[in-house]
């Protein structure tokens, strides 16, 4: 029995085909989100990998910001439920999930069976999100995927005092104009993200073990800045950006049974 989970985010579209609720048959991630060709392209990619069609899916669940746009879905489910489900499959001991995506930050408390107990979310401004990092990467003429590596080369502490994306961008430009080393600026940017995320996490309460999900969990610099600020270890699964799509596919399986 095959089930499909599609997570249409603001920055990227992700999809997972699960067999019998436990085996991942195909996964896809296209870095363009809601309102773009992202959905069509992930479906083509999944078909190329698995040779399975939508008709062969026993259930299809959509999640993410653009979840209502995907008409083949039998149901749309909030990202919160899907992330909790996906994390429970990968790391069942988890009690707190920190999800940093393209345009929001969420901190979720989960119970023993992966049920969502409580959450807080910042979706009002870009501070602390993947978009903030995308803006900074552009100013630094690099790619978001390189920021983690760059931060590791930092030798001198440099703090970005403004958390607002627009003001922080000006601050970064002025640091660069004053000859600051790029790795130091990047590490400062990561600490700024960690500060926002930590403020949010403290509002909901942090219970270990912690897991970070979402595209930004692939940035080792943000993960380590956050670990330092929280003084707690944070686990990252092998595919943090696919957690929501995986959870959607798993929910699809549970409903189909
Ligand atoms: P959404 O669900 O809102 O589309 P995602 O969870 O897919 O968001 O995360 C998108 C964010 O992930 C981007 O804004 C970017 O900052 C970050 N990101 C994506 N790919 C990478 C990568 N290879 N390395 C580090 N960060 C990444």
Q: What characteristics describe this protein?
A:
alpha/beta, 5-stranded mixed beta sheet, 22% strand, binds adenosine-5'-diphosphate
Brief synopsis:
This protein is an alpha/beta fold. It has helices spanning 38-50, 79-90, 130-139, 147-152, 165-177, 182-204, 220-230, 243-256, and strands at residues 2-8, 13-19, 23-30, 57-63, 75-76, 96-100, 105-110, 116-122, 210-213, 234-236. The chain has eight helices and ten strands.
The major beta sheet can be summarized as: 5 strands, mixed
The strand order across the widest sheet is 3-2-1-4-5
Radius of gyration: 18 Å
Figure out the total of helices. Answer: 8
Percentage beta strand:
15-25%
- Average pLDDT across residues? 95
Distance between the termini: 9 Å
Your description of this structure?
The protein is an alpha/beta fold and 257 residues long. Helices cover 40% and strands 22% of the residues. The protein has 8 helices and 10 strands. The strands form 2 sheets. Strands 3-2-1-4-5 form a 5-stranded mixed sheet. A 5-stranded mixed sheet has the order 8-7-6-9-10. 47% of the residues are buried. A hairpin with a 5-residue loop joins strand 7 and strand 8 (116-122). It has helices spanning 38-50, 79-90, 130-139, 147-152, 165-177, 182-204, 220-230, 243-256; strands at residues 2-8, 13-19, 23-30, 57-63, 75-76, 96-100, 105-110, 116-122, 210-213, 234-236. Bound molecules: adenosine-5'-diphosphate (ADP).
């Amino acid at each position: 029995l095959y089930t499909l989970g599609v997570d249409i985010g603001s920055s990227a579209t992700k999809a997972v085909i699960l067999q019998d609720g436990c085996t991942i048959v195909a996964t896809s991630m296209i870095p363009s989100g809601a309102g773009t060709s992202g959905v069509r392209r992930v479906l083509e990619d999944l078909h190329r990998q698995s040779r399975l069609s939508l008709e062969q899916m026993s259930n299809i669940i959509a999640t993410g910001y653009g979840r209502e746009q995907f008409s083949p879905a039998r149901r749309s489910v909030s990202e919160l439920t899907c992330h909790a489900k996906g994390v429970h499959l990968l790391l069942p001991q988890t009690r707190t999930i920190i999800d940093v995506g393209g345009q929001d930050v969420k901190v979720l408390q989960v119970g023993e069976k992966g049920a969502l107990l409580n959450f807080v979310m910042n979706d009002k401004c870009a501070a602390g999100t993947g978009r903030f990092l995308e803006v900074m990467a552009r100013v630094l003429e690099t790619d978001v995927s390189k920021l983690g590596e760059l931060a590791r080369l930092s030798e001198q502490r440099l703090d970005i005092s403004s958390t607002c994306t627009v003001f922080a961008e000006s601050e970064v430009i002025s640091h660069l104009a004053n000859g600051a080393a790029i790795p130091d600026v990047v590490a400062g940017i990561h600490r700024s993200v960690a500060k926002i995320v930590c403020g949010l996490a403290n509002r909901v309460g942090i219970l270990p073990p912690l897991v970070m999900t979402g595209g930004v969990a692939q940035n080792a610099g943000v993960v380590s800045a956050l670990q330092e600020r929280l003084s707690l270890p944070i686990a990252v699964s092998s595919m943090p950006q696919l957690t929501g799509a995986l959870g959607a596919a798993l929910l699809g399986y549970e409903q189909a049974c």
